[in-house]
Amino acid sequence: MTTGTDLLALSPVMPVVVIDDVGDAVPTARALLAGGIGVIELTLRTPVALAAIERVAADVPDIVVGAGTVTSPEQAKQAAGAGAKFLVTPGCTDSVLDAAFATGLPFLPGAATVSEAMRLAERGVSALKFFPAEASGGAAFLKSIAGPLPQLQFCPTGGITASSAPSYLALPNVGCIGGSWLTPAKLLAARDFAAVEKLAAEAATLR
Length: 207
Ligand SMILES: O=C(O)C(=O)C[C@H](O)[C@H](O)COP(=O)(O)O
Prior knowledge:
Strand order of the largest sheet: 3-2-1-9
Oligomer: single chain
Order of helices and strands: HEHEHEHEHEEHEHEHEHH
Low-confidence stretches: none
Bound molecules: 2-keto 3 deoxy 6 phospho gluconate
Mean pLDDT: 97
Strand content: 15-25%
C-alpha cells in the first residue's frame, strides 16, 4: 500500500477508534480483524494513542494500523515514528500536508468543501477524507461533486451509521467510509470484544 487510493481499497469501512485504555488496543484490533476488517484508524485524541499504535503495529501485524485526528505536523511525525502505516486528518493546513508528505506514508487529508478538495488536488492528492460527512451535506454532496471532480475519491466520515453506509458506498467517488460505530465506547469499556467482532463482520459485508 503506497497511496491514499490503495488505502481506500483495503475495506468498505475504516473503523475510527478512540482508545482510552492502552490495554484495549490489541484486543480491539484482533476483534476487527477476526470480523473481516483489515484496517484500523487509531485517533490521536487520547494520551495513550501513540502507545496504542505501537502495540497494534507490533502485536497485530495483519491489520493495517493508521493514525487519525492528525492535526499538527508534530503528530504526523510522531505517528510515523510509532509505526502508523497511514495518516488521516480531519481537515488540512499547508504545514500538516507538508509533514504528512514528508513521512512518505499514504494519507487521507480531510476536506469538507469543493475549494478545499480542489486545493488538495492541486497538491497531488487524489484520495481524501470527507469530514464531517453528514453535517456537510452527506451522500448528496458527494454525488454532486462527482461530475466536476471525477478524479477524486473520498472516505466520508462523521455521523455515518450501518444503515446510512450503503447510500455512500453506492457512489462512484466513494472508496470506503469511516465510522466509529464498530467500536462504541460502551463496548470497549465493557471489554466486549466479541460484540466488536460481530459489528465488524456486519460492516465487512457492506460492499
Ligand atoms: O477524529 C478525527 O480525525 C475525525 O475527523 C473525526 C472522526 O472521523 C469522527 O468523529 C468519526 O465519526 P463518527 O463515526 O460520527 O464518530
